[in-house]
Amino acid sequence: MSPIIQGIITIIIGVGGCVAYFYFANLVLDKVIFPARGEKAGRNINRANAVRPWIFLFPAMFALGLYLVYPVVGSFMRSLYNRAGDEFIGFGNYAQLLASEDFRVAFFNNILWVIFVPAAATFLGLLSAQLTDRLKWGNIAKSLIFMPMAISFVGASLIWKFVYAQDPDIGIINAIRAALGADPLDPLQIPFWNNFFLMVILIWIQTGFAMVILSAALRGIPEETVEAAIIDGANPFQIFFKIKVPQIKSTIMVVWTTITVLVLKVFDIVYTMTGGNFDTEILPSYMMDFMFRDDGLATAVAFVIMVTVLPVMIWNIRQSRAEMR
Amino acid sequence: MDNIAGKKPALVWATNLSVLLLVLLWLIPTVGLFVSSFRDRDQISASGWWVAPFSVELTYRTRSDAEPRQEGDLWIYEGNIFETAEVRESFESGESSIAAFGLRGREPGAFEAGQEVENRDGGTITVNADGSYVYTATEPDDRGPRVYFVADTPPDFTLDNYRTVLTADNMDRAFINTLTVTIPATIIPILIAAFAAYALAWMEFPGRALLIAAVVGLLVVPLQLALVPLLNLHNTIGIGQSFLGIWLAHTGFGLPLAVYLLRNYMAGLPRDIIESAKVDGATDFQIFVRIILPLSFPALASFAIFQFLWTWNDLLVAKVFLPSAGEAQVMTVKIADDLLGSRGGDWGILATAAFVSIAVPLLVFFTMQRYLVRGLLAGSVK
Question: CB contact, 8 Å: B297 with chain A?
């Protein structure tokens, strides 16, 4: 069966099934189980209304439970077993990871990514938000800086291969170096700094995201505060750093944490650019080295990533609960 | 009030310039890819894309195909080298000039144009800058001598790369596979999430706050955790690595964002409308279908765009949940696993493949940017 036809059938079954489920579940609830008739009509209506939220929620909860909650537990359990999955070895996989030089390199690089990418993307986003807000052609500028958001990590990596290529007739960096009289070099093979060259790609993608959100936040700042600062003789830099930035601190935090979480998921860039060679491995790409080969180690790496995300998760939940109150 | 501070002309200039610089920095890499995808393979390796509109010095080889005429005891071949059969096609489009020529493939540019060079068998050969050549030989030869030359070649923009990528490299199949993955994976979660979001936004029941917190928590669960257990699960229940598997996976992974975005939006809808509908005797199902869904269109659209971009651009889930064989590959996998390996040095093909894969997301981005921005803001700024 052609995949396209299979796709169309899936859409019909999926959408039709959803609609049918919600419609008939409601119908059954109202007409069969708790009919709003007879002597118990009032009680039945109340009962039906108590059950209804769960009918609405059930498909989403089931899918979330199966595809996101179960894997947290399932991955952890699997990480306690050996490669074949038939022998319980406790924290053996974790011990093996800790003892491995590659894991330490990946972990260290990951820390670099987690520190540098969100910081740089947020800073550049804030800068471009503030600068473009004052310009007539600011919206065009914004949309061009925002554009890389739509590009896949694989596509972005290829785009940047044309920047980093060693051949001075292809890579623009080496073309500039050649024009200045320097020998061509491969930026992706320079120890330590090659990590940063890879990070640049993710920063290039994420700056637009930070800019869009921070620009909205900047516009939401009450004008009186800025006016008062101007009357008091503050210069534009003071206005920006001392008046505006403190007022959008919480939004900056949201942007920062969102990008942090993203950094911990992105394996595509390292995978396409260097394949983890030249000491550029990070945890997500390190995990893919074990995927299909050693499920025990793969899940152990995944769980390490999960533990790294945990503080952000807790912070997010707290934040959202505070907002709801 | 910004304008007061920004009215100093120097500052306005500085702002304009720095934004221009930023935009250029952000745009240049993509432009490079775009230009390269239209350039001829030889031209790409001979000069950078930033000089694409100018002529390039390229090396050619050809053979004289003129009829010799006898003059004393010498045989003379005359003609224009650009018109010889082997290279004619390359020079049809415009003016070219010869910088150097040579007689051996190892040194194609050994002699300057216009120089008279002795051939091995005692004859001489001259190739002028305008392409005209004179070759003299002591004996007639049914084939003219092999000549190498370096010529300024006019820029050559072609669609050949696109033709190669779409036909020879199976990229058309990968394109259709990507569409096949993306569309169901975008549509199915929307409906599931919309009902759940309505319940979380407008229905009262115990444990609601806890569920919302759980959704927020699930937003950041790293996908990596899901790969091994779910692939095993899919294998156990017989789905295995298939389109059905990846649709289900994308649906599951997209739900937290969908529920979160839609709930935030629905919670902000005016209470009066919903309450007056309830007073008029509408059931929750009717309220949802008739009032909430149409009013939530902007949020539905922005989630749809997010999910579309994410599934279209995804490499990780496709690598794990789809078979790695060629006929099921999506474009990202095709590029990362196939083309980078087999066509690693063929920059024109790589650029074209990348551009084919980012064209649709860019189109969606530029036409629906409004909804995308709105969705981002609903998700992050309260």
Answer: no
